[in-house]
Amino acid sequence: MSLVDLFLRLDRAGPGDAESLRWALGVAGTRADARILDAGCGTGADTGMLLAAAPQGRVMALDAAPDFVALVASKYPAVSARQGDMAAPPRGPWDLIWSAGAVYNLGIGRALDAWRGVLAPGGRVAFSDLCWAGPARPQAVTDFFAAEGVAMRDAAALEAEVAAAGWRVLGARWIGRAGWARYYDPLEVALAGERDADLVAAFRAEIALWKRWGESYDYRLLVVEPA
Ligand SMILES: C[S@@+](CC[C@H](N)C(=O)[O-])C[C@H]1O[C@@H](n2cnc3c(N)ncnc32)[C@H](O)[C@@H]1O
Could you check whether the bond before residue 93 is cis, i.e. omega within 30 degrees of 0? Predict the structure, then answer.
């Protein structure tokens, strides 16, 4: 079974939860008539809540993976689900671009540059990304994520990347352990029925890393706007 097949059985493909999304919607001032782009929607972890937050607005869910897009379209008929590259987003304009755990694929500067031109006046971006969460810097964590192509940095460095791209931070918080458990608990269950030994080993190693060193890193959730 492929990675996509595994995730098609899960409703989250990264850390996050309803509570932190609600917080972001509040900081962003998302209104009932908001036009929202869920960039890198995966299997629609947050798409339903975004829809509920904007009953008089509209939600588009965008992902590079066609199977995820098809799943989201079937789960949420009211959403416009589209296969595509969030580096070249649909024109909008969007009052909110929400991107949970997907920005690392582009990098902060490239994502924010790509999104600036499709935001409505007063529009905001909310995204989550991996950071050191405390003073400990376990080498095992650095090495694990480096092998995935992700360089660890702290929350101040992340905010510096946002500022360097010409954006201002309106609010920032951690996703926290509940959001990781919301991702990893169902993933662990799904791995029990998975036959691809390499895939199982890779995810078990990631989950074991979090159980051992998870106090040292977290997803930082930021709400930002053009400066
Ligand atoms: C870690 S998953 C997070 C998915 C979802 N937001 C969640 O929290 O469960 C990252 C998602 O980004 C998508 N993705 C990666 N690069 C992309 C790109 N350039 N354009 C659109 N989607 C992309 C992947 O297919 C994947 O579904």
Answer: yes
